[in-house]
């Protein structure tokens, strides 16, 4: 079973700000939806709570990792609550081996999966931006380790105009070697 990571980060590896995504790039969000639909998404509790209306992502199996034994969500047939990385992996192996598995955040969950060497591929939207603010959420730059990760695909630079600003970004696929 391959586990994939999907993330949008700037050049300082910032992925979140004030409980939300830093960037809302239409193509990135479209790719995310296309890739994860009909598959499994694994996320932490804070990421789940940042979703619109704190609702599970539709047409996906949502696995939420939390330390909170009292955490619950409204009854749903596509949500599973687990209490650790390995419990999430075991659930996927037992019930969802026919689906693609995507880790979608947040930083703690990304960093745990990476630290345990459980990620096989990473889909990274890399934004051409160097900003970083106090309390930003940052992911470890695992892709900088050329002994473990190889760029499999890199798109041409793309551009989106938002609020009068140009955002430039690339899509990259890294494979664990």
Quick structural summary:
With 177 residues, the protein is an alpha/beta fold.
In words, what does this structure look like?
The structure is a single chain. The longest helix has 11 residues, at 26-36. The chain starts with a strand and ends with a strand. It has helices at residues 26-36, 45-50, 85-95, 107-115, and strands at 3-10, 14-17, 20-21, 40-44, 61-65, 79-82, 101-105, 121-127, 137-138, 149-154, 158-162, 165-176. Helices cover 21% and strands 37% of the residues. Strands 1, 4, 5, 6, 7, 8, 10, 11 and 12 form a 9-stranded mixed β-sheet that branches. It is of the alpha/beta class and 177 residues long. The chain has 4 helices and 12 strands. A hairpin with a 2-residue loop joins strand 11 (158-162) and strand 12 (165-176).
Keywords, separated by commas or semicolons:
177 residues; 4 helices; 9-stranded mixed beta sheet; alpha/beta; globular
List the helices and strands and how they pair.
Elements (H helix, E strand, L loop, with lengths): L2 E8 L3 E4 L2 E2 L4 H11 L3 E5 H6 L10 E5 L13 E4 L2 H11 L5 E5 L1 H9 L5 E7 L9 E2 L10 E6 L3 E5 L2 E12 L1
Parallel strand pairs: 1-7, 1-8, 4-5, 4-7, 5-6
Antiparallel strand pairs: 2-3, 2-9, 8-12, 10-12, 11-12
Give the helix level as a range of percent: 10-25%
User: N-to-C SSE series?
Assistant: EEEHEHEEHEHEEEEE
The overall strand count is 12
Strand content: 35-45%
General shape: globular
Look at the structure and give the mean pLDDT: 93
What kind of assembly state do the chains in view correspond to? single chain
Biggest sheet descriptor = 9 strands, mixed
Low-confidence parts: none
**SS element count, helices:** 4
Q: Structural class of the secondary elements?
A: alpha/beta
User: Using only CA atoms, what is the Rg?
Assistant: 16 Å
From the N-terminal CA to the C-terminal CA, the straight-line distance is 16 Å
């Amino acid at each position: 079973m391959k586990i994939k990571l999907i993330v949008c980060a700037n050049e300082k590896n910032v992925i979140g700000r004030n409980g939300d995504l830093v960037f809302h790039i239409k193509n990135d969000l479209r790719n995310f939806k296309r890739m994860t639909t009909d598959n499994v998404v694994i996320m932490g509790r804070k990421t789940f709570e940042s979703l619109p209306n704190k609702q599970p992502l539709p047409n996906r199996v949502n696995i939420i990792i939390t330390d909170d034994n009292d955490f619950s969500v409204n009854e749903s047939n596509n949500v599973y609550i687990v209490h650790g990385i390995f419990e999430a992996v075991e659930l996927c192996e037992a019930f969802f081996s026919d689906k693609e598995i995507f880790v979608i955040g947040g930083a703690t969950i990304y960093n745990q999966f990476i630290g345990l060497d459980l990620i096989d591929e990473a889909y990274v939207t890399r934004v051409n931006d160097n900003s970083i603010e106090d309390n930003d959420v940052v992911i470890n730059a695992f892709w900088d380790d050329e002994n473990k990760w190889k760029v499999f695909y890199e798109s041409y630079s793309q551009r989106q105009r938002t609020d009068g600003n140009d955002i430039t970004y690339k899509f990259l696929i890294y494979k664990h070697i």
